[in-house]
Amino acid sequence: MSKRKGYTLIELITVLALFSILLLFSVPNLSFLHKYREYNEVKQFEKDIKYVRAKALIENSPIVINFDISNNGYKIIQYNKVVKEYKFQQGVNLKSINTSNGYLTSGGSSIEFKTTGAPSSAATIEFDTRFHGKYNITLSVATGRINIKTIR
């Protein structure tokens, strides 16, 4: 009788099943990455607003943030010159802007930061995201305070 060396079909299937279970637990959760990117994009927008507020105060010149909902982005304009232009890309959608001048869901709107660092009108900017829910960013006229509120 000859000795055969090899594995049986049951042994091969068992090993493949164990490997597939191990791979299942080792694959990273990609939704975490998407949420992280969305959150960072909204935080970057908040930093840009704070930058505009500080720059208007320090340089003693008005600066405008011009929102373009149809293109899902904004521009920072000083002395009729575009300082920064940004378009949201990581799943963040600019949904609406509610200023004391009116409510806007399409087209463009702008908020001017005066030389005192305060915005010209109170505003609530609403964002929708694919994975993280909704964000509301509120600008206060009296204090120039910027608040981010997450709505799930």
UniProtKB/TrEMBL annotation:
<keyword id="KW-0472">Membrane</keyword>
<dbReference type="InterPro" id="IPR016785">
    <property type="entry name" value="ComGD"/>
</dbReference>
<dbReference type="Pfam" id="PF12019">
    <property type="entry name" value="GspH"/>
</dbReference>
<protein>
    <submittedName>
        <fullName>Prepilin-type N-terminal cleavage/methylation domain-containing protein</fullName>
    </submittedName>
</protein>
<dbReference type="InterPro" id="IPR012902">
    <property type="entry name" value="N_methyl_site"/>
</dbReference>
<keyword id="KW-0488">Methylation</keyword>
<feature type="domain" description="General secretion pathway GspH">
    <location>
        <begin position="42"/>
        <end position="140"/>
    </location>
</feature>
<keyword id="KW-1003">Cell membrane</keyword>
<keyword id="KW-0997">Cell inner membrane</keyword>
<dbReference type="GO" id="GO:0015627">
    <property type="term" value="C:type II protein secretion system complex"/>
</dbReference>
<keyword id="KW-0812">Transmembrane</keyword>
<keyword id="KW-1133">Transmembrane helix</keyword>
<dbReference type="InterPro" id="IPR045584">
    <property type="entry name" value="Pilin-like"/>
</dbReference>
<dbReference type="GO" id="GO:0015628">
    <property type="term" value="P:protein secretion by the type II secretion system"/>
</dbReference>
<dbReference type="GO" id="GO:0005886">
    <property type="term" value="C:plasma membrane"/>
</dbReference>
<dbReference type="InterPro" id="IPR022346">
    <property type="entry name" value="T2SS_GspH"/>
</dbReference>
<dbReference type="GO" id="GO:0030420">
    <property type="term" value="P:establishment of competence for transformation"/>
</dbReference>
<dbReference type="Pfam" id="PF07963">
    <property type="entry name" value="N_methyl"/>
</dbReference>
